[in-house]
């Protein structure tokens, strides 16, 4: 009995032994660039929808795609819990960003960078492999304020055309090589619009070393791109990881005021740090 009482006292005195660390909530979200041709779904009309969805989900960290600078600034203005960073795909701030957002009250940004999915990855705006637009990665290394745990988030957007399959495989190999070069014991999250489906060659290249939060939990296949119509057949937006346990994976399909915040559904994964 004395030993049992002593053990209970120890657990109460050291919370980290009594309960698992709080999981990390990650979101991948293609926010859709500002296109005048979107009519009732153009950015000025749907900005409040998107920021309302954003605040409701309240993820710890978010990898976005197709983000323009004024969209990122509008998100932070509407939800000051966040900060964001990233260059656009041409190396400046006038085009699409792979912007990474993080909760300033939960995470500290330690290091950040980017590279291009090309034969010259350090050259901003570089294009290889026959696709029409620059494609890139924006990444950040973070420390969690509550317990000092560190991880790296890698965020990207792959080529979109049907004929770009070979380019997507090469892009996946670039991302996989970057992850492999990180310290082996460092947890990693990869978010993105991969413009490909589970089972594709690009998917197999990445999931050779990374866990897909959706399939790891046995979720039935579902779609993420819906073109503002709400009907999605292809799951092209993924949250992949290394060094985490997959706890929960969802696709948020909620409307705001009868319409959707973007032409993609956001994908949310709850990941628990594996014990050292």
Topology readout:
Blueprint: H1 2-13, H2 15-18, E1 24-30, H3 43-57, E2 61-65, H4 69-78, E3 82-85, E4 100-103, E5 107-116, E6 136-144, E7 150-157, H5 165-181, E8 188-193, H6 201-207, E9 211-212, H7 213-216, E10 237-242, E11 244-251, E12 267-273
Parallel strand pairs: 1-2, 7-8
Antiparallel strand pairs: 1-12, 2-4, 3-4, 5-6, 6-7, 8-10, 9-10, 11-12
InterPro entries: CCR4/nocturin_mRNA_transcr (IPR050410), Endo/exonu/phosph_ase_sf (IPR036691), Endo/exonuclease/phosphatase (IPR005135)
Protein name: Endonuclease
Keywords: Endonuclease, Hydrolase, Nuclease, Signal
Description:
This protein has 276 residues and is of the alpha+beta class. It has one domain (23-273): Deoxyribonuclease I, Chain A (4-Layer Sandwich), CATH 3.60.10.10. The protein has helices spanning 2-13, 15-18, 43-57, 69-78, 165-181, 201-207, 213-216, and strands at 24-30, 61-65, 82-85, 100-103, 107-116, 136-144, 150-157, 188-193, 211-212, 237-242, 244-251, 267-273. The strands form two sheets. A six-stranded mixed beta sheet has the order 3-4-2-1-12-11. α3 (43-57) crosses α4 (69-78) and α5 (165-181) packs parallel to α6 (201-207). The two termini are 31 Å apart. Residues 7-18 have low confidence and may be disordered. This is Endonuclease.
């Amino acid at each position: 009995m004395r030993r049992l009482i002593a053990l209970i006292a120890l657990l109460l005195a050291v919370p980290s032994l009594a309960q698992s660390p709080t999981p990390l909530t990650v979101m991948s979200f293609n926010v859709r660039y500002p296109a005048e041709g979107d009519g009732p779904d153009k950015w000025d009309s749907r900005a409040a929808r998107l920021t309302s969805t954003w605040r409701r989900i309240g993820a710890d960290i978010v990898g976005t795609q197709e983000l323009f600078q004024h969209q990122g600034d509008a998100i932070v203005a509407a939800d000051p819990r966040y900060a964001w960073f990233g260059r656009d795909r041409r190396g400046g701030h006038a085009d699409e960003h792979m912007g990474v957002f993080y909760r300033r009250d939960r995470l500290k940004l330690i290091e950040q960078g980017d590279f291009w999915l090309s034969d010259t990855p350090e050259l901003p705006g570089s294009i290889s492999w026959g696709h029409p637009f620059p494609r890139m990665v924006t990444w950040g290394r973070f420390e969690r304020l509550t317990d000092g745990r560190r991880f790296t988030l890698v965020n990207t957007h792959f080529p979109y055309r049907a004929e770009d399959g070979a380019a997507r495989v090469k892009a996946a190999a670039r991302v996989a090589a970057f992850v492999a070069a990180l310290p082996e014991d460092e947890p990693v999250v990869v978010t993105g619009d991969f413009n490909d489906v589970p089972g594709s060659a690009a998917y197999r290249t990445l999931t050779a070393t990374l866990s897909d939060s959706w399939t790891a939990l046995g979720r039935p296949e579902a779609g993420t791109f819906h073109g503002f119509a709400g009907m999605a057949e292809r799951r092209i937006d993924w949250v992949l990881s290394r060094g985490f346990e997959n706890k929960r994976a969802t696709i948020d399909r909620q409307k705001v005021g009868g319409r959707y915040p973007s032409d993609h559904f956001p994908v949310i994964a709850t990941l628990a740090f594996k014990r050292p």
